[in-house]
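Handout, section B. The chain below has 303 residues.
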Amino acid sequence: MFQKFTLTAAAALVLAACNGQNNTAQSSNAPAASTPAAASSANVPVAAQGSACDTVVVPATSNVSGSLIERINNKGVITVGTEGTYAPFTYHDASGKLTGYDVEVTCAVAAKLGVKVAFNETNWDSMLAGLKGGRFDLVANQVALTSPERQATFDKSEPYSWSGAAMMARAGETRFNALANIKGFKAAQTLSSNYGEEAKKAEAEIVPVDGMAQALTLVQQQRADLTLNDSLSFLDYLKKNPNSGLQIVWTAGAEDKKGAGLVANKGNDEALAKISTAIKELQADGTLKKLGEEFFGKDVSVQ
């Protein structure tokens, strides 16, 4: 169980000091960058030195002032909405430190841009509304931005992770290398999920479950033959449970995968272009690959 901070403000900010190194796993003794004119030291103190994402809790602030591109160009502080409760993407580790794949990617991007990040921990239901209302500049929370309604209001950077449907079965299983092959076999699925619908379309025999954990248990116990779910969720499970006796036997093709990126309000094209360039550089220099292997056991930045 991950230990979480007890925050006194409903939307407490976490300031991450991001150094200039590309490798977010390395430590640095470099001094933190100076704060922008729009953020006083009373509201945004310099975080402690150390790893690229050392964090301190700071008071919540009102709406962001100035434009995102101005803060990037001035090497200032950008605010980022994230859940902090969505492992392995954004969560608190055993020491209480905010971390996760999305958090560390954001810090690596900030290091490339020469800015610092103030993470605003917010529940998912109000996150995009908070972005639209100006509570923060960006959202880092595995947002693929696929619905037309969201695309009309927000824009997304170059993706830093890709995910799609995948199938898990017992280790050594060779029958299920395509969806068409699961016809007549038992698939442990939640009835209302997209993955349950996929299993029904493939004419599998549905074994109802409450969630992924129960589905995987039934497969282990041979009470089901397989289960469908998100590929990143499966990778996270296998990373944490290397002796589960399970394996991924099929994943969706590249054309069916969805990419998650940093999300901003419409009208931030110049800022998102700089952020996207930083993400491409992090992929080219191996940083995203290293972070993917750290959190998932695999590079998830490639489609």
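Note. The chain has a mean pLDDT of 82. Compare this with the example in section A.
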